[in-house]
Amino acid sequence: IDCVGGGILVAIKADIKSTRHLDLARKSVELVVVELSRPDRRSFLLYTFYRPPDSLPEVLQHLNSSLQSIQESDCCVVVGDFNLPMLDWSNDQAAPVNIGGNASGNVLCELVGDNFLHQFIEGKTHEAGNKLDLLLCNCPETIEKVTTTPADECGFPSDHYIIDFIIRLKFERTKPIKRQVFNYYQADFESLRHSLSRIPFENISSYDNIDDRWSCWKTLFITAVSEHVPTKFIKDINTPPWIDQEVRNLIRKKYSALKRYRKNKSDALKKKLRDISQA
């Protein structure tokens, strides 16, 4: 109603609980937002969006406004035909690059970065060779097995490709793992420095292979450390070893900056949010 373009249809199986969020819709924008859930599963918001070709940048700004109004902890999946083939979605980019200079392309680049969205479709989604349809999500671990298939191979009359993907909503918790680590708080650093000063590290240069040099250095160093630094056992509970206190602090800072930016969308807060997100 009151929309111009291709229209949107969202079909949901009867055994999936669904709630349409009219509060997240925007007037004169082809957007349907539905919350989907199953028993003992995490719920998520499904955004289905259509951007008519040559539409004004305000259309994407309305979509961004809707995304900015959800909770930071909400998992959202955004699918639809964005009709912006000039964007570069290289894998090494945190956000797409607008190589066409289109104003709507700039808005979408900001939308992806501001909402921490990841794009999952590789290759073209249209028979003309363009990537028009996008699959975006702010929880990348939930999206699996994304495939694209020409519509004629499925007997469907469309010039767009059929996109299939799985949304994983239940995760098994990993079992706690005990690891033996050095307890540097109880280390005898004076004796350790003395031992290290007496190790003939210069003999490492006798090895031609860099891997052999590294192995020799590591053996000499760890042997000295083991003599002067006690060990202890720690238990990792569902946390990768690289998620240390510094990373946790950065994650908290990111979401705090996001919350402040959503309350007051100033340029200064926006820059601070992006700096923290790229740290």
UniProtKB/TrEMBL annotation:
Mind telling me which Pfam families this protein's record contains? Exo_endo_phos_2
InterPro entries listed in its UniProt record: Endo/exonu/phosph_ase_sf (IPR036691), Endo/exonuclease/phosphatase (IPR005135)
Q: Which GO terms describe its cellular component?
A: extracellular matrix
In this chain the Endonuclease/exonuclease/phosphatase domain maps to: 46-163
Q: Name one GO molecular function term.
A: catalytic activity
Gene3D superfamilies documented for this protein:
Endonuclease/exonuclease/phosphatase
Q: What is this protein called?
A: Endonuclease/exonuclease/phosphatase domain-containing protein
